[in-house]
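Handout for the seminar on molecular recognition.
Each group receives one record of this type.
Step one: identify the two inputs.
Step two: read the structure output and locate the region that could contact zinc ion.
Step three: write two sentences on what you found, then compare them with the reference statements printed after the record.
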Amino acid sequence: MERINIFNRSIIAGALVFVLFFMSDSVSGLYAQGKRSKNANDASEQLSPADYRSKNFLIHTDLPPAEARDLLERLEKMLVIISTYWGSPNRRVIECYVVKDLANWPPGSLHPAGLRSVASGGGVTMSQTTYRGRQIIAAKSIVYATSSRGTPQHEAVHAYCAQNFGRTGPVWYSEGMAEMGNNWKVVPKKGQPLSVSCERYVIDYIKRSEPKSLNEIVNSRETTGDSWQNYCWRWALCHLLATNPNYAARFRPLGLGLLMNKPASFNQTYGSMAREISFEYLFFLKHFDQGYRCDLCQWDWKTKFRKLNSTRTLISKIEANEGWQASRALVEAGTEYQFSTDGEWKTSSDAESVTAKGSDEGLGTLVGVVLIENEDNEYELSEEFELGESGRFQAPASGKLFLRCRDDWHELADNSGKVTVKITE
Ligand SMILES: [Zn+2]
């Protein structure tokens, strides 16, 4: 199945104009994962659908007025974030049918495809784009969505893309970014939101699953609306690429290329960094949770590492609010090294400052790990080991020594301070 379903392509007589119709998300039970219960128990209010407008949205909905206005506000906030991200202001009001209870909608008031999607607990965006030659001269999307679980936000990202770029991109990108939009709830002071704020079930599902490979996510012929599990993987990949500075600078132009139908592909963009992305992707899946920051945990691929000897001391500064950082030392399995530290840090804004020895609970302890290049030429990590304030340690493997201040991976942002580490043989 093609990534975009073309239902009709008609050439209007006499003019080089053609019209494309396509749908994103015929999601049957997309979020079925334990998220269905809410409406069932509500004493369902009998509200006929009414219209609500804001700058960028027109919604027809049977939500109570206060909830409808609240939804409009959230949609507007999200639109600021996504239009800033893609650098393109929204050109046309996005029209949405948002359904709380289908019983409130008279027969025939919803498009049959929209009705089907809503009845199955999801949403769909139907788009019509009119081209003259390769140029879009008109684009209009209509969203049909259940009111719950961020479905209107997800669909509104598709509608924004379709109306402003004429397409929503390949499935992995289109659905991954729509899920990102759904999770982008706060407008930051500058730039885009960076911390993980997805639904709990996404984290639980990914944590208990075998990681899906990048190649499977990006290159398999997956279709929109296939399964909520696939949406989790697409979100995870897009989140990593959009928020990890090692990859973010290439991700935006890649996305714009995909949206504007220019020659662009994941493999072309990231082929030369395939090993690094695979490593950081698996690392992200292992450690992420609500609040995790890919920018703080990005891997340092640039710093040069050197072998230690009896006359060479290597000095590094390790920040409390970052993930693994380069010690600059190449170590050898089984060899003992000496180290000392200077400085204090904190593992939350209201914690006491501690040295690299850490607190009694083991937070704030200086810990190390060795980055290994294995026989298959892939990166992997040794077991983590404790260093503390000063002393000796034995390297558990041969490779590059990385250090960090021990704290929960998703709670690094509020840490402060740094420690200087000296290592000799
Ligand atoms: Zn979607």
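Reference statements: Residues 24-25, 154, 158, 175, 178 surround zinc ion (CB under 6 Å). The chain has eleven helices and 18 strands.
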